Amino acid sequence: MELYDKIVNSFKGITSIKEKVKDDLTTNESVSSALAAELVLISTLLIAAIMFRHINIILTIVVVLGLALILITNMPLIPKLIKEQSDSLEKMMFYVILTLGILITIIYWGTI
Amino acid sequence: MNELIALMVIIPIACALLLNLFHKKDNTVKIIAIVVAIVLPLIPILANFGLHYFGGHAPLITNPSLLEKVPETIANSSLAIFHPAVTYSYEAIQKVFIFFLGIVAFFAIFTSLSQNKKISGVLMFLMFMGTAAVTALLLSDDIFHMYIFFEIAALTQVGIILTSKTDNNYETAFKYLILGAIGAPMLLVGIGFVLGIVGSVNITDIVYAISQNLVYPFSHSLLIAFGLIFFGWLYVSGLPPFHTIKANVYSQALPNAAALLQVFTVITFIAFGITIFRIFSYLPFFKTLVLIFALLAMILGITMAIMQTDFRKMIGFLAVGELGYIGLGFGLGTELSITAGLFQGINEIIVTALLFIGFGTVLYLTKTSDTRKLGGMIEHTPKLAIMILIGGLAMAGVPPLNGFQSKLMIVQAALDSGFPEIAIIAVLISIVTFMVFVKAFHSIYLKPKPNNLKVLNKPVPNSSIIAITVLLILCIVLGLFPQLVTDSISQFAMGLI
């Protein structure tokens, strides 16, 4: 019976997946948008990281390679980014407070 | 003394209060609103450049007879130079921005009056009050005065969202207020620190006190003040982490009102940006910080815009991303970059207003802004579609339109400053902006029309067509003759550095 239950449950899983897919149609447009967004995000961040060369060349190499590794191993990034950039009040407040904290810390203690 | 300088703020405030009183008297509201909206772009053309001291209280040094009467300790000190009253400064840069603000305000009010069956005196009140507030932001040389008018502008923005009657508008307005309750007090506390250190809230006085070493420029209190005011700037201008709420604010307002809201944001961004640049640009990490947040705004704005399915949110995020270009201008900190950034600000005001009003016609005809439910609109409004397409090309920076000129100047400024990376990112983001626009345009106009899409069987209001045409002409004229505005902006930028 256990095996039978497993098979039935797996069918249920498939049906629920189908319902999910029905709710959120994946079109050519959405796929190409996601791909473009993914590429833009990775490329711009890596290009921006090259600006560390104004501080130190070795640091730049380490940062760019490290960042590339982190970004590529965490692909796809866009679903995560969209989840974090949602308009839920908690997330927005979290990032606002985090930014305030980092900003004040860097400006105040970074220049002493 | 030029009284017209103060009237640039007083006339829209007086008009706003009148319209609120005349709510429900449709014809009266319509006539007053149209007349004042026509006057708004005309006043900056007629006014002479100069300073306006409220109450006539000029600095002591400008009044030798009075200077003789005060004790020598005051007459010989910096107090004689300080400004005792709120001062409005009207120069070429203010003229340009207030003129374009007046143009967009006129079309936002004009299209709103002609498209809504019931004319709302309250909405007109909010639009005029917001316009007055951002005009005061541009003119004021007093940082506390700027804060007060920013708060008025923020409240009118909330009010404009509430009048839109869209889904979740109350929720978005409430969220904006809560986030404002974090951002705005920080800005005020920062201003309080500056007042405590310098003893004046006049920006010229603060700059003088710091540059003449009357106060220690690297004192801890001044650093904290910079941190708090900078954070406040992120809030007022919708840079990250406030970009999500700003894009939502645009998407919840009616398109005509959203066209005006984005102008409020751009002008607030520029007014506070110039102020912060004047006071704090001596700090070694100032430009780096501005560059970081400008790049973040561009990257996050564009990646979020491309993933949206609601065209109002798409334009909202695009508008936030475009703010990053203006930020780059301040961040690079050269004469060319600041000129380019401010020119980009003017272009953004025009182009985003064009797109909001243009795509607003689609919302007017179909009552939906979901691109998945739209399609085939080109058969209903072919000429309008072409005009909107050209507007989109201007935003993406296609020659010979205005967006191309300002973005090219930013790229040149980045290369001249030794930051080719920033130039590459600016070009990349431009390309993706083009892609976002093409995606929106294809979904709305070119895709086969869905069977269940109902389109109103009536023409697009003439007011919208006139507004789009005039804004498009401005895009082309500024693209072909950028020196019309860049000359006055570059003079200002030279003085700023």
Q: What's the SSE pattern of chain A?
A: HHHHH
Q: What is the subunit arrangement here?
A: heterodimer
Return the domain count of chain A: 1
Shape of chain A: elongated
Percent range for helical residues of chain A?
over 70%
Uncertain runs of chain A with pLDDT below 50, 5 residues or more?
A: none
Query: Which chains share the greatest interface?
Result: A-B, 40 and 50 residues
> Can you tell me the residue ranges of chain B where pLDDT is under 50 for at least 5 consecutive residues?
none
Q: What is the end-to-end distance of chain A? A: 71 Å
Enumerate the strands of the largest sheet of chain B in spatial order, edge to edge or round the barrel.
Answer: 1-2
Strand percent estimate of chain B? under 5%
Give a brief rundown of this model.
The complex is a heterodimer of chains A (112) and B (497). Chain A has 112 residues and is mostly helical. Chain A is built from 5 helices and no strands.
Q: Which terms summarize this structure?
A:
heterodimer; A: 112 residues; mainly alpha; 5 helices; elongated; B: 497 residues; 20 helices; 2 strands; 2% strand; globular
Overview of this protein structure:
The complex is a heterodimer of chains A (112) and B (497). Chain A is built from 5 helices and no strands. Chain A is elongated. Chain A is mainly α. Chain B has 20 helices and 2 strands. Chain B has a domain at 284-497. Chain B has 497 residues and is mostly helical. In chain B, strands 1-2 form a two-stranded antiparallel sheet. Chain B has helices spanning 3-21, 26-46, 64-69, 72-75, 92-115, 121-139, 143-162, 169-198, 203-211, 220-237, 243-252, 255-280, 286-307, 311-332, 335-366, 382-396, 402-416, 420-446, 462-480, 483-496, and strands spanning 50-53, 87-90. Classes of the chains: A mainly alpha (112), B mainly alpha (497).
